[in-house]
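Supplementary notes (optional reading)

For those who missed the lab, this is the record we used. Protein: peptide-methionine (R)-S-oxide reductase. Length: 135 residues.
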Amino acid sequence: MPYDVEKPDEQWRAELTPGEYAVLRQAATEPAFTGEYTDTKTRGVYSCRACGAELFTSDTKFESHCGWPSFFDPKDTDAVELIEDRSHGMVRTEVRCARCGSHLGHAFEGEGYPTPTDQRYCINSIALRLAPEEA
């Protein structure tokens, strides 16, 4: 699928740190409870670290205690794309940036969290960049 932002692999490697590249371009996962945004309460907008597209807001972030930042809804319906992921012997829903196709994390449904959507977008901190709200 063509994305608005497409770059050759060498350019992604040059622009991203090895950790960012592994998660965003190779669908790796950062270790649980290590990401900079796991527990942050800072208000603002979370954007894709690869292309800058606005993905989530602090208004939809909640504490799921899963080890990664969790959101119950993307900023805009078309900000992310959901793709069936059958890797690692399970069926999950991969979350990618709709603008550049970078891997962000996975989405889960029906876990019983007291959120308006009953969805949990479990997103790697390293895939995001938080722009704090101005006071």
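If you only remember one thing from this example: The two ends are 39 Å apart (CA to CA).
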